[in-house]
Amino acid sequence: MDKQKAAQKMTEVMAKFVGYTGKVLPDDVTAKLRELSERETQPLAKEIYKTMFENQRLAKQLDRPSCQDTGVIQFFVRCGANFPLIGELEELLREAVLRATREAPLRHNSVETFDEYNTGKNVGKGTPSVFWEIVPQSSECEIHTYMAGGGCSLPGKAIVLMPGMGYEGVVKFVMDIMTSYGINACPPLLVGVGVGTSIDVASLLSKKALMRPLGSHNPNERAALTEKLLEESINKIGLGPQGMSGASSVMGVHIENCARHPSVIAVAINVGCWSHRKGHIVWDEQLNFAVKSHKEFAL
């Protein structure tokens, strides 16, 4: 396959995959929502969960987005340096968004800042967002797709703490947000927390945390314990589905971290709605692909 045909193939698949993720939730999110609904005891909360599942059924049946806000499309790319389309990938993903916008369809959510006009294409200056990680001596390309909605992960929060505030300060910041801004998204929520050396790094880590499979844990035992304690604490708020009260406030809490300067602890939080439109696809050097997030996806 020559490079032009390879790019055309990848563009077509990515366009269909992006559109699909707006209509069908990833397998881990669906499984978690079923688990939470079965655990629920309050009649209103149980009825809301039924409505959520009916919404998902109709979205799939009618081939329509499951939420009216299909968000700003974001890509988290972990690409091998030897992947054959590494040079074409960013433009290819932009074209895929254009196609998905027309074909899915997706709501037009790219407004040019200061000029205040909607491009009508879901692309604009800096959109879709593409966050890169290059892997030496690899020929694979791993892509996480995400529809970042106006009520969920786009209004994130970040702060730099003085080191004396310690990790107690991290927990306090997260809990302060989750008892105020956190309910701006539609519960039960997925909470992504980034802890690192600066606001920009922590913010990106908090977004990457939202891409992790539900049920996974930070490999650092102290970070994993903090995830567990935060999840238990936020659940005690009792938000319930759609914030109407219930047994669970969150689907999970994920923390991603990196080394930091000794004088600061930067922490950021991003929150995903229950309608968590993420996708995970992996390409090899022959342009074969494997979808990790949606077992039923097919061209």
From TrEMBL:
Fe-S hydro-lyase tartrate dehydratase alpha-type catalytic domain segment(s): 12-281
Pfam families the UniProt entry points to = Fumerase (PF05681)
Entry keywords, A to Z: 4Fe-4S, Iron, Iron-sulfur, Lyase, Metal-binding
- Classify the source by domain of life: Bacteria
Tell me its cofactors. iron-sulfur cluster
Tell me which EC number(s) this protein carries: 4.2.1.32
Q: What reaction does this catalyse?
A: (2R,3R)-tartrate = oxaloacetate + H2O
What are this entry's molecular-function GO terms?
Answer: 4 iron, 4 sulfur cluster binding; L(+)-tartrate dehydratase activity; metal ion binding
Q: What assembly does the database describe for this protein?
A: Tetramer of two alpha and two beta subunits.
Family of this protein: Belongs to the class-I fumarase family.
Give the protein name, as stated in the record.
L(+)-tartrate dehydratase subunit alpha
